[in-house]
Amino acid sequence: MDITHHMARVIGPVAYRSITGHTQTVPIGPCLIERLAGSSVDVIWGASAQSSAVIPMEDIDEARAFGFLVLLD
Hints:
By secondary structure, the protein is mainly beta. The chain has one domain: SH3 type barrels (Roll). It has one helix spanning 57-65, and strands at 4-10, 15-17, 23-25, 29-35, 40-45, 51-56, 69-71. The protein has a five-stranded antiparallel sheet, covered by helices on one side. A hairpin with a 5-residue loop joins strand 2 (15-17) and strand 3 (23-25).
């Protein structure tokens, strides 16, 4: 399985569904995007990379199109 990593910055609302089923947003700031095989990515953030969310690729593409998520590499 190929895993692709990207350094990114969240600059607007990037929503995800939490384990409890509530919609939350990734905090503004730096993050790591890990694209796995399939149609989802893992977005990782926090000072120690302690937080993450699996988000459908189409939602990531939409966030990029709106300028809410910028790939830095």
